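note to self: the first set is below, dont mix up w the second
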Amino acid sequence: MAIGASIEGFNSVIRPVICIDATHLKARTRGVLLVAVCKDGNGMIYPLAFGFANSECTKSWTWFLKKLRKGIQNPDRVMLVSDRHNGIFNAMEAIFPDAAHGICVYHLAQNLKRFCKQRDD
């Protein structure tokens, strides 16, 4: 789901950097909430799109990113930032092959901490 005003704002005034991630839902239905957000001119979170899926996998991310790509005017001129989950990475490569891909600094730091801790053991 994407609110028309959010897509219109993104296409006209928002810097084309999209952060995508998922969070696991703990209610009876389970599943995951897939989200795409940006930052507006005031540095505030700008919701772009969200969707619900059974799991965070390549199939779910491919579906979500296909829908997101339809709403973006210049899909090859965006930068996608993520935690580089395998499902996200595979879907980004397939749906946004010419877009720039980046990794979230927080997730990079967490991965480095985990990797370095494992090497010390």
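second set (the one i keep forgetting abt)
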Amino acid sequence: MVVLKYKQTAANLKVYYGTCFTLISGIIIFGGLLAPALELKLGLGGTTYADFITSMHLPMQLSQVDPIVASFSGGAVGVISALMVVEVNNVKQQEHKRCKYCIGTGYLACARCANTGTLVLIEPVSTTVEGERPLSVPKTERCPNCSGSGKVMCPTCLCTGMAMASEHDPRIDPFD
């Protein structure tokens, strides 16, 4: 079984807004235009709601809105809006808990190799009496500071990505 983890962040929150508003717009169009047109023009759904109102001798103003479609549309819009508010609040809470230095990744760029993972070794140029010696090709080696990864552990959050490592973190064990 493949489980995809999707972490909602402030960067992709705009995509989430767009998706929610698209769904809400589609539901409103369905409930306001498509469902009544299908009921009246094609005769789908049995008796029309207007016929039902007439047979019950109720005011014709009630036939303007089908209660089933209206309740479906209103309920769906309400649920989507509530989920959007919950998700926005979760993103804002997570931003406050995030480490300010590594921005929640747990790692910082290696300063020794400038986040490349390799060090360029250049020999000094020496000149001789007869003339200049040509430059040699620079040699590279893996950065011993970050072991070639280009990143080092964030000392502030101890690689947790959280604002401050707590005393309950299992990596900070006083009896170890």
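remember for set 2: Residues 67-97 form the longest helix (31 residues).
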